[in-house]
Amino acid sequence: MATKSVLNDSKQVERAVALINLGARLQVLESETDLSYERLLRLYKEVAGRSPSKGQLPFSTEWFLTWQPNIHASLFQNTYEYLTKVSALEDIDAIMKAYKLYMEQIAACGVEPLLSITRAWRLVKFIDNNMLSMTKCSKCGGHFVSEAYENSRHFECGLCSPPARAGKGAGAGGILLH
């Protein structure tokens, strides 16, 4: 019979609390911790003060390829990839740190965040499973989220070649192009 580690249990609870505070859905907590569903549910209610959201997680890659979400997703993914290269963080810890940095950067720019921690987590899973990839823009050299097998020779990002109506909307907190 294997003995339960109090230290490991404490680390799992700490990770779950951090994810809840970032707004993660219950399915993310279940996937990234070893805690039981019942325990996560009680923990979620205690930390968030409400029951977790119900329903399926977003599963389409298309959201990440539209203009503004692509810019946000690319900012997050570049940060995440940098953190995984320069540190020995576990994947979920790197996702949480990259998400916090993304939120700080977005706030500094005065732009509304479009990426939730759950979408950021899903983005990493999509890239890990080769459903999406990062492609270098042939104009600016930045790396952007793209279709899995995008030809980088002719790829132009949404900042270098925005759609016709991009950045012209009156929506507060959006990216504006001049």
Automatic annotation (TrEMBL):
Keywords: Activator, Bacterial flagellum biogenesis, Cell projection, Cilium, Cytoplasm, DNA-binding, Flagellum, Metal-binding, Transcription, Transcription regulation, Zinc
Cofactor binding description: Binds 1 zinc ion per subunit.
InterPro entries: FlhC
Gene Ontology MF: a single term: zinc ion binding
Cofactor: Zn(2+)
Subcellular location(s) of the protein: Cytoplasm
Metal-binding recorded as keyword: yes
Entry's family note: Belongs to the FlhC family.
Protein name, UniProt field: Flagellar transcriptional regulator FlhC
Origin species: Rhodoferax lacus
